[in-house]
Each structure stands twice: as C-alpha cells, then as structure tokens.
Amino acid sequence: MRIDIITIFPEFFSVLDVSLVGKARLSGLIDLRVLNLRDHTHDRHHTVDDTPYGGGAGMVMKPEPWGEAIDGILANVKVNPDVAVAAVADAERPRDAGPLLIFPSPAGELFTQAMARELAQEPNLIFGCGRYEGIDQRVFDHFAQAGRVRLVSLGDYVLNGGEVAVMAMIEAVGRLIPGVVGNPESLVEESHEDGLLEYPSYTKPAAWRGLEVPPVLLSGNHGVIATWRRGQQLERTARVRPDLLPPAN
Could you count the other beta carbons within 10 Å of the beta carbon of residue 246? Predict the structure, then answer.
C-alpha cells in the first residue's frame, strides 16, 4: 500500500518509524511518503492560510497549495485509464480509479474498525492534514468531481489539526495489512472486530499484589475458557459501551 500525507508539520510523522508501521516501511509492505504543504506555496512567507469569506474567527487553508500538492501526487500514482470515474457514484467507484483522499474533519463520518478494514484494501491513500478553521471547501469539491474524497472524524471532539487523527488512522489501517502484525490471529480477537469490546487479558505470575488470575484461565479447558471470554466481552460491552449491543426485542 502507498500512503501519502500532506501536512505543514512533516516532522510530526517521524514517530511512525519506531512503530509496526516503521517496520512495514522497511520491509516494503507500506510505502509511506510525507509532503510539506508549504513546498507548494510561491510567496516568501510560504503562506497556506487566509481570512475566511463572510467573516468569522480564525483562518482557512488556501485552495491553491492543496490543489498543487494533490495534483503532484496524483501525477505520480498509476491510475487505470479505462476507468471513467467521473460518471460513477462515490460508493461505486472501483479502487483502481485512483487514490482515495481522506481529510480528518469533525464534520466527517465516524472512523470505525469496519472503516479501517475497508481502507486496508485500498492500494493508495492520500491523507490531508488540515489546520486552523479547516480547508477551503472547494478542495474537497474539486477532487470529488473525478475521484474519491472522504471526510472522516475520530469522534465528537475537536483537535488542533489533522495530524493526530491521521496518525491514528494509519496505525489502525496499517496493522490490518497482511504481514504487518506478526500473529494475524491477534487481529481477530481484538475489540470491535466482532462488534464487542475485547475480554481482559492476564499473564504470569498467577498472583500479583493480592490479585489472582481467574481460575478458569488456568484450567486448560479451552471450551470453558472461550465461553468465559465471550461472557466477559458481553459484560464489558454492556457496562462500558452499551451502544454497541443490538437493541433488545
């Protein structure tokens, strides 16, 4: 998978080199590239923002640097020329139509584990990290005319910029790419994979500071253990995230 990130803080993403994503980059599983948006400005101050039309607080990121930056990436990504994407609805556009552009936004659709699995199937992702009061709407509208654009939110809160959100999404998506996580079975048993939260985990020693591992986990009876773990998932989900449970009839 190729992942391009556009940001005014490229150094922010250096931390990915010490994670599983960093190992995936070294092994060639992920081709991660970070582009400085200011490299696509043409004034001596490298200006990427301006005051909003209609008034209001804050600044809005200008469309020109974004358009130039995204155009440059698209020009270097292989796109199937036989796919006429302009006449096809977003949800129906095939993945070989070109990269999927993702912009973190509190006005976007909620990022979930299901979306992470979906994005992990994409060959090319472009993440745009907005700042200030956001990016000029015309950037989204322009690239949605002939491609695929998604605004995505991590949750019902506001961050200073899109970098933290993009980092979280890349971590969630990257670990689902085959070969990135050493034991693929661990992906199956995690929170949200089956719609429930994960069961509690324990390791040696069996007793620690007066707290003991549940006896069922020491029984060696895998059927009983599986039943216990499922019960723990249901109990934890009902207590912490009841919204994940199906409504009772």
Answer: 6
The single residue listed with the structure tokens 């934890």 is 236
What DSSP string runs through 98-160? -PEEEEEEEEEEEP-HHHHHHHTT-SEEEEE--BTT-B-HHHHHHHHSSSEEEEEESSSS--S
33-37, 140-144, 175-179, 183-187: least confidently modelled range: 183-187
If we measure between CA atoms, which residue out of 211, 114, 111 comes closest to residue 169? 111
114-127 average pLDDT score:
96
Structural contact between residues 34 and 5, judged by C-beta atoms closer than 8 angstroms: yes
- With b for 16 or more beta-carbon neighbours within 10 A and e for fewer, the 105-120 pattern comes to beeeeebeeebbeebb
Query: What pTM was estimated for this model as a whole?
Result: 0.83
Give the mean pLDDT of the chain.
88
Q: Which residues contact 218 (CB under 8 A, 6 or more apart)?
A: 206
In angstroms, rounded to a whole number, what is the distance separating the alpha carbons of residues 51 and 49?
7
pLDDT(73) > 90 = yes
Share of the chain above pLDDT 90, in %: 73
Residue 147, exposed/middle/buried by CB under 10 A (0-12, 13-18, 19+)? buried
* Contacts with 84 (C-beta within 8 Å, 6 or more apart), sequence order: none
In degrees and rounded to multiples of 5, residue 116 shows phi and psi of: -60, -45
Residue 91 confidence (pLDDT)? 45
